[in-house]
């Protein structure tokens, strides 16, 4: 439930659920933990996406969804070839850069954008969606937050609308990676389906928290996640 709430608000529920699975079930293969987490995550994230889209009605470009599906699947297939520990320093630096940028610009993401979006901006967002989706398939922490930042900065819109778009795309990245884990036999279905119910409950509470708090709440949550996630990854890498 906690992971579902976190995922719905800003993303990062995997940082709660994956270590919990590995701690509670000794001997569980890391690939099975990742695959089961994807099954749980897609349930909650999709549930939150439906709730947010119904209320906010963002413009979802089909190309974002299709590219996210393909790239996340490709990332999951490449996961065994890339050492995740090599990514941690880069992700920590990127998280701190995002946090610093948002902290120094109080109005960023809290005011609705206006006007049409130029074609080159749409291409930039498409590229970022592909890169972030590929990263989600390989490693994953912070995917939702990176999507929110991409949509907010490039499309010049508020965090609330970006959060709704991010949930739709994040649901698709989870699906792409999940399909790969299913084909590899790395999903613990019985446990995953039970946890998915709790994740959906948490995600629904989280989606309503976002709608009630608005863009400023999402901004504050983003800064908190930056601190927590960068500290956790640094502890993993240097501890």
TrEMBL record:
Membrane topology: Multi-pass membrane protein
Cross-referenced Pfam families: TauE (PF01925)
S-adenosyl-L-methionine listed as a keyword: no
Matching InterPro entries: TM_pro_TauE-like (IPR002781), TSUP (IPR052017)
Predominant location category: membrane
Keywords in alphabetical order: Cell membrane, Membrane, Transmembrane, Transmembrane helix, Transport
Subcellular location: Cell membrane
The keyword Transmembrane is assigned to this record: yes
TM annotation in the entry: 6-29, 63-81, 87-104, 125-155, 175-205, 217-235
Family: Belongs to the 4-toluene sulfonate uptake permease (TSUP) (TC 2.A.102) family.
Name recorded for this polypeptide: Probable membrane transporter protein
Organism for this UniProt entry: Corynebacterium nasicanis
């Amino acid at each position: 439930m906690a992971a579902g709430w976190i995922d719905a608000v800003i993303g990062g529920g995997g940082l709660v659920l994956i270590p919990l699975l590995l701690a509670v079930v000794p001997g569980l293969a890391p690939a099975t933990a990742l695959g089961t987490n994807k099954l749980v995550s897609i349930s909650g994230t999709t549930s939150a996406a439906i709730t947010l889209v119904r209320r906010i009605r963002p413009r979802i470009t089909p190309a974002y969804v299709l590219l996210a599906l393909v790239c996340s699947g490709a990332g999951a297939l490449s996961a065994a070839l890339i050492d995740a520990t090599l990514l941690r320093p880069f992700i920590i630096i990127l998280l701190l850069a995002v946090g610093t940028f948002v902290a120094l610009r109080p109005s960023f993401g809290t005011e609705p954008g206006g006007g049409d979006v130029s074609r080159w901006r749409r291409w930039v967002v498409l590229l970022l969606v592909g890169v972030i989706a590929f990263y989600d398939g390989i490693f994953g922490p912070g995917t939702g937050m990176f999507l929110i930042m991409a949509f907010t900065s490039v499309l010049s819109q508020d965090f609330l609308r970006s959060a709704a778009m991010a949930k739709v795309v994040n649901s698709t990245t989870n699906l792409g990676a999940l399909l790969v884990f299913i084909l590899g036999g790395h999903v613990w279905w019985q446990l995953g389906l039970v946890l998915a119910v709790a994740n959906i409950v948490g995600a629904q509470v989280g989606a309503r928290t976002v709608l009630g708090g608005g863009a400023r709440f999402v901004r504050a949550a983003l800064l908190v996640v930056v601190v927590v996630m960068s500290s956790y990854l640094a502890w993993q890498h240097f501890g």
